[in-house]
């Protein structure tokens, strides 16, 4: 028999855990590189760019477009990596708390 009150308590427990994890996500970081490491972008779990490093040889007027492309590429790589870290953090924090409901993905709660 389905225990609705128990399920609601579990939902509240998961919500509290999710809120706790969200507070820690800002401390997660991921780095993306482009141009064989000439451009590096670091993002945090809040999906914010926190640092951009680039080789000084790229900082010339004639390389402006290439530099822009490398920054975009490195940023996109870093964003993909932080998404994976966020999902892993949420999965480990909520593991075993909720029944396995097909189609229920808690990772989507953090966009």
From TrEMBL:
InterPro entries according to UniProt: YbaB-like_sf, YbaB/EbfC
Keywords attached to this entry: Cytoplasm, DNA-binding
Cellular compartment(s): Cytoplasm, Nucleoid
Keyword flag Zinc-finger: no
GO molecular function: DNA binding
SUPFAM superfamilies per the UniProt record, alphabetical: YbaB-like (SSF82607)
Keyword Protease among UniProt keywords: no
Superkingdom per UniProt: Bacteria
One GO location term (cellular component): cytosol
Record's subunit section: Homodimer.
Protein family membership: Belongs to the YbaB/EbfC family.
Job description of the protein: Binds to DNA and alters its conformation. May be involved in regulation of gene expression, nucleoid organization and DNA protection.
Protein name from the UniProt record: Nucleoid-associated protein E1898_16450
Species of provenance: Algoriphagus formosus
